[in-house]
C-alpha cells in the first residue's frame, strides 16, 4: 500500500494551488447610497464581493455616510466594517466615464489584483455562488499564466459582471480607457462599449461564455437562479438576494432528492503524511465533563471538528480516560492544571450590561501548552477552535489559502468576522504562533488581564506583539446572533453545541457521511527454517510456519476532504477518489491498475525510499518546498495521532 501511495504521489501531475482551490478572484464594485443596506448584509454574511478572495469597494460617499443605518447595530463600524475607497467623481447611475476611468485607474494603481487569476468588476446587486463561478472561470483559465482575456455573455461583456484575467487588466491599465468619448457616457452601456473598445485595442481576447451571467432585468418570467450559471442580476432587496443565493446552491437541503450538481463534501481519505497545503493544526480546550466531551467524542469517531485538520491537539485539565473514555486509546489530551472555566466579567454595549466569560487566564495556559508541545510548528496555520464549531476542512483550507502563499505568509492573525476577531475560530500563521510563543510574557502582565474574555485578550496580545491582521469573510459564519441554515461557502460555522443541530449544519454544508472505511483481513504466513546442529555430523532442520492475521483499513481513515461537485473531483489526487468509487460500487479497478503500475515503478522508487528512511527525524519536520509537488506532500508530523 505504501508503494502504491508513493507511486501515486510520484506521478501526480504538478498541481498549482489555483487548481486545487479553483481560480482566485479579486472583485471590485462601485456603490451608491441605495445599495448600502444590501452591502452591509453581504458583509455580515460574508458573500457577494466579500466572498471573493480580495475586494475593493468604491464610492463617492465615505463609509460613515454610507453605512449610517448599520452603525447603530455595529458600533465598531466604520473601522471594522467594509473598507470603502473614496472616489472624487460622483457615482450616480449610470456611471460617468470619468468615474469608470478613475475606478480602473485606482485598481491598477493599488496592484493587489496581480495576486489573483480573475478580476471581476461587479454590480453589488449581482448574486453568485463563488464555487459555481470558479467552476465556470476555470474552464477558461485557472493557472497563474492565463492569457489576456475577457468574458462575454453573448455579444457583449455583461456590465454587472465584467470578468477579466489579470493579464487583461494589466494590458488595460496601460491604455487606461482614455479614448472613450465622455459624451457617450450617459447611456448605461457606454461603459461596456468603451471597455470592449479598449480591450480590443489592447489586444485582449474576448471569449464567449454563455454561463457567466443571467440578466433578469428585462425578463418577465419568474426569476429562478439555477445551479448551472455563474451569476444573476439584479437583486437589490436582501430577501430576494438570499432566495436567489439559495437557488444557486448556497445551502443544501438535507432530505431533498439528491441533485447531481449539489455541492457535497465528505470524508477525506488522504494517506497520512500527505497534505494539501496550506496545512492546518487545530486545537481545542475541552471541559472535563458535560456536553463538550460528548460532542468531541462524536467528532472523534467521525474525524470531524478539529480531527478534520491535518494535525490536532486537545487541551483539558483531566486525562483522556476521564474526558473521552471510549476514545482514550487513540486520543491524547494535554493536561493543564487548575480550572478550565473562568469567572464572568461585565461590560456595557449600547447601554446594556452584558456578561462575558473571563477566561483569558485559562486560555493563556492552554496556548502555553500548545506552544510547549510544539508540533504546531510543522503546519502552515494554527487554529484554536471551540468544540461547537462545524468545520468544512477543504473550504477552511481554501479560505486560508486565499490569504497568503503558504511559504510566504509572514506573521498574521485572521479577523474572521467582518473586521473583528471572534473567539470560535482563531487562526494565525505558524510564524505568528511562534512570535506569540516567544512573547507570551508580555501578554500576561497588564493589570487584570485574566479578567477578560479570551478573544479580547488574544486580540490585544497579538497587536502588542506586532502580529498583523488580515480579514477573511470566508473563515467563519457566525450563527449566534442570527440562527439560519449553514451554507456551502464558509469554512466554519459556530456555535453548534447540540449534537442534532451540529449534524444538521454539517448536512446543510453538503456533508454526507460515508461509513468508516471497510477493513480487510491480511494474513501473512512466514516460514522459517532453523538449523540446529546437535553434533558435528548430524543436523536437524525444523520448519516453522507463523501466520499473522491483522485487520487493517482498506483506505487510510485520516481527515476529511471536500468533494466539491464533479468538476472539483477531477482535480483531486487519485487516491482521494478511490474510496468514493468504492462507495459507488466501482470495485478497486483503479487501485488494481495503479498497483500494477506501481510494480513497474517500485524499482525506480527504491532510491527515493531509502533516502526517505535515511533522512534524520529533524529534516522530516522541515517545511515542504513550495513547489507544486510539495503541495501534496510534506511529511509533517501528525500531531495528535495515536
Ligand atoms: C476553581 O473554581 C472554583 C469554583 O469556581 C474556585 O473556588 C477555585 O478557587 C478555582 N481554582 C483556581 C485554581 O482558580
Ligand atoms: C477542571 O476544571 C473544572 C471547570 O473549571 C473544575 O470544575 C474542575 O475542578 C477542574 N479539575 C481539576 C482536576 O482541576
UniProtKB/TrEMBL annotation:
Superkingdom to which the source organism belongs: Eukaryota
Keywords: Signal
Gene that produces this protein: DNAJB8
Organism: Symbiodinium natans
Signal peptide boundaries: 1-18
Protein name per its UniProtKB record: DNAJB8 protein
Amino acid at each position: 500500500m505504501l508503494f502504491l501511495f508513493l507511486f501515486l504521489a510520484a506521478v501526480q501531475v504538478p498541481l498549482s494551488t489555483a487548481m486545487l482551490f479553483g481560480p482566485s478572484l479579486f472583485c471590485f464594485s462601485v456603490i451608491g447610497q441605495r445599495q448600502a443596506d444590501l452591502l452591509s448584509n453581504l458583509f455580515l454574511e460574508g458573500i457577494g464581493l466579500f466572498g471573493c478572495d480580495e475586494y475593493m469597494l468604491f464610492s463617492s460617499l465615505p463609509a460613515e455616510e454610507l453605512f449610517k443605518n448599520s452603525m447603530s447595530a455595529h458600533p465598531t463600524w466604520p473601522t471594522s466594517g467594509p473598507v470603502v475607497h473614496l472616489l472624487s467623481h460622483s457615482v450616480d447611475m449610470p456611471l460617468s466615464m470619468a468615474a469608470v476611468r478613475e475606478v480602473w485607474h485606482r485598481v491598477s494603481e493599488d496592484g493587489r489584483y496581480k495576486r489573483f487569476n480573475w478580476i471581476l468588476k461587479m454590480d453589488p446587486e449581482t448574486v453568485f455562488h463563488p464555487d459555481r463561478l470558479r467552476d465556470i472561470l476555470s474552464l477558461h483559465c485557472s493557472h497563474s499564466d492565463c492569457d489576456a482575456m475577457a468574458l462575454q455573455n453573448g455579444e457583449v461583456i455583461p456590465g454587472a459582471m465584467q470578468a477579466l484575467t489579470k493579464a487583461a487588466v494589466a494590458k488595460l491599465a496601460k491604455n487606461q480607457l482614455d479614448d472613450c468619448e465622455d459624451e457617450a457616457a450617459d447611456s448605461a452601456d457606454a461603459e461596456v462599449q468603451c471597455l470592449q473598445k479598449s480591450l480590443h485595442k489592447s489586444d485582449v481576447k474576448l471569449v464567449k461564455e454563455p454561463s457567466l451571467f443571467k440578466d433578469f432585468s428585462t425578463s418577465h418570467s419568474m426569476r429562478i437562479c439555477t445551479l448551472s450559471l455563474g451569476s444573476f442580476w439584479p437583486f437589490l432587496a436582501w430577501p430576494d438576494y438570499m432566495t436567489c443565493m439559495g437557488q444557486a446552491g448556497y445551502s443544501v437541503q438535507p432530505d431533498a432528492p439528491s441533485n447531481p450538481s449539489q455541492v457535497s463534501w465528505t470524508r477525506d481519505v488522504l494517506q497520512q503524511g500527505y497534505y494539501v497545503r496550506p496545512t492546518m493544526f487545530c486545537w481545542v480546550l475541552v471541559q472535563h465533563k458535560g456536553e463538550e466531551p460528548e460532542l468531541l467524542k462524536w467528532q472523534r469517531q467521525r474525524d470531524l471538528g478539529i480531527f478534520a485538520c491535518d494535525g490536532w491537539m486537545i487541551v483539558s485539565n483531566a486525562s483522556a480516560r476521564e474526558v473521552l473514555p471510549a476514545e482514550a486509546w487513540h486520543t491524547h489530551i494535554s493536561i493543564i492544571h487548575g480550572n478550565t472555566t473562568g469567572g464572568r466579567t461585565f461590560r456595557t454595549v449600547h447601554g446594556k450590561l452584558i456578561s462575558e466569560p473571563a477566561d483569558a487566564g485559562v486560555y493563556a495556559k492552554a496556548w502555553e501548552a500548545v506552544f510547549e508541545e510544539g508540533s504546531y510548528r510543522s503546519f502552515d496555520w494554527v487554529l484554536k477552535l471551540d468544540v461547537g464549531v462545524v468545520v468544512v476542512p477543504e473550504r477552511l483550507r481554501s479560505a486560508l489559502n486565499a490569504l497568503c502563499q503558504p511559504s510566504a505568509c509572514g506573521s498574521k492573525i485572521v479577523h474572521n468576522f467582518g473586521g473583528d476577531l471572534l473567539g470560535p475560530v482563531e487562526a494565525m500563521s505558524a510564524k505568528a504562533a511562534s512570535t506569540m510563543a516567544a512573547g507570551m510574557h508580555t501578554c500576561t502582565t497588564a493589570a487584570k488581564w485574566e479578567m477578560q474574555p479570551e478573544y479580547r485578550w488574544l486580540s490585544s496580545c497579538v497587536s502588542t506583539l506586532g502580529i498583523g491582521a488580515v480579514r477573511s469573510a470566508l473563515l467563519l459564519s457566525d450563527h449566534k446572533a442570527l440562527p439560519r441554515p449553514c451554507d456551502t461557502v464558509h469554512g466554519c460555522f459556530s456555535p453548534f453545541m447540540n449534537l442534532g443541530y451540529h449534524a444538521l449544519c454539517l448536512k446543510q454544508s453538503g456533508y454526507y457521511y460515508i461509513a468508516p472505511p471497510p477493513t480487510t483481513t491480511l494474513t501473512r504466513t512466514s516460514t522459517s527454517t532453523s538449523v540446529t546442529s546437535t553434533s558435528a555430523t548430524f543436523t536437524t532442520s525444523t520448519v516453522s510456519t507463523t501466520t499473522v492475521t491483522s485487520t487493517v483499513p482498506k483506505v487510510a481513515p485520516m481527515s476529511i476532504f471536500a468533494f466539491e461537485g464533479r468538476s472539483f473531483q477531477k482535480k483531486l489526487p487519485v487516491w482521494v477518489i478511490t474510496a468514493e468509487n468504492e462507495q459507488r460500487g466501482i470495485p478497486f479497478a483503479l487501485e488494481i491498475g495503479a498497483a500494477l503500475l506501481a510494480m513497474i515503478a517500485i524499482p525506480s522508487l527504491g532510491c527515493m525510499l531509502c533516502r526517505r528512511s535515511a533522512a534524520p527525524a529533524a529534516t522530516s519536520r522541515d517545511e515542504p518546498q513550495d513547489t507544486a509537488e510539495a503541495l501534496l506532500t510534506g511529511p509533517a508530523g501528525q500531531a495528535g495521532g495515536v
